[in-house]
Amino acid sequence: DFTMTLYLRHYWRDERLSFPSTTNKSMTFDGRLVKKIWVPDVFFVHSKRSFTHDTTTDNIMLRVFPDGHVLYSMRITVTAMCNMDFSRFPLDSQTCSLELESYAYTDEDLMLYWKNGNESLKTDEKISLSQFLIQKFHTTSRLAFYSSTGWYNRLYINFTLRRHIFFFLLQTYFPATLMVMLSWVSFWIDHRAVPARVSLGITTVLTMSTIITGVNASMPRVSYIKAVDIYLWVSFVFVFLSVLEYAAVNYLTTVQERKERKLREGFPCTCGISHSKTMMLDGNYSESDANSLAGYTKNQMVPEEEKQEKMVVHLAMSNESNSSRKRGLKGHVGLRIIQNTHAIDKYSRLIFPGTYIFFNLIYWSVFS
């Protein structure tokens, strides 16, 4: 719906209202004379509500010229329907029209036309809407046919509205993009930090659901897909895939660790290396602890029932100097840190941002 307040002015000539005058250029009357003379029975097609202003008196003016020309003006507020297409919302432009037509007189009895074409329509240059930018006004006219009554002249006031996008950028697009980028942070978090990655994924999914619900709550219930729906749902899919990505990483890591555990159980602890001492580290020992435990065997350190609960790293410690043992320990610890990042996380750091940027390029080139 749209509501418009306008001054509707009719011009016609009625010789019965002509009068001889040498001093008066015209005579002006109020609405009381309108009920006693003939006036066009113009009504607004497809209007839902309309009224003539009556404060402090009826806003109607009748001006009669000596040759019988009549100017009939009234101030009206009308609410009419506009067939809008929201398939490109909120990057859309809408064209609405206000239609005027005689109710009783066909085109054989009454001809309606714009007095000066597009110049007949004059608007206030200060008109501004909170959600739309008025691009242009123009007038047209054509015949309308009714099967039971005949052909009628119909006048159109057409205006094009372009929606302001800045509000939706701040309230919809920008938050959705930030949520997608926030979901990518989990790719840089250690896959063993289960609470951190799961809570981050669930939070972004719930936030995207809230954004989608808020946008749809303020929109008409339409049966087709809008442009904003495409962007939000694709963003939601990206966030959801980041959660599934961690599920895949966690599952594959568990399978890999299970295979490694079976391989360790199938070989002796010394791994076939003679004249060396074995040591077990679970990742929580410092370098000094490692040096102090270098002379102990596996059976002296860990009971049999705790074997399956620790990540075991076997280091072959020969009778080398302390400096060489330190360098070897640092090398093994560095290798273990590198292995903490799963291959899927490495690929996701590139695939997810690259795909989302490609989607944005296509989206804004199509709808903008």
UniProtKB/TrEMBL annotation:
It is a multi-pass membrane protein. GO terms for cellular component: chloride channel complex; postsynaptic membrane. Residues 1-164 form the Neurotransmitter-gated ion-channel ligand-binding domain. It holds the Pfam family Neur_chan_LBD. Its main location: membrane. The keyword Transmembrane helix applies. The chain crosses the membrane at residues 165-186, 198-218, 230-252, 350-367. This is GABA(C) receptor. It catalyses: chloride(in) = chloride(out). It is found in: Postsynaptic cell membrane. One of its GO terms (molecular function) is chloride channel activity. Residues 172-309 form the Neurotransmitter-gated ion-channel transmembrane domain. It comes from Phaetusa simplex. It comes from the Eukaryota. Keywords: Cell membrane, Chloride, Chloride channel, Disulfide bond, Glycoprotein, Ion channel, Ion transport, Membrane, Postsynaptic cell membrane, Signal, Synapse, Transmembrane, Transmembrane helix, Transport. CDD domains: LGIC_TM_GABAAR_rho (cd19059). Belongs to the ligand-gated ion channel (TC 1.A.9) family.
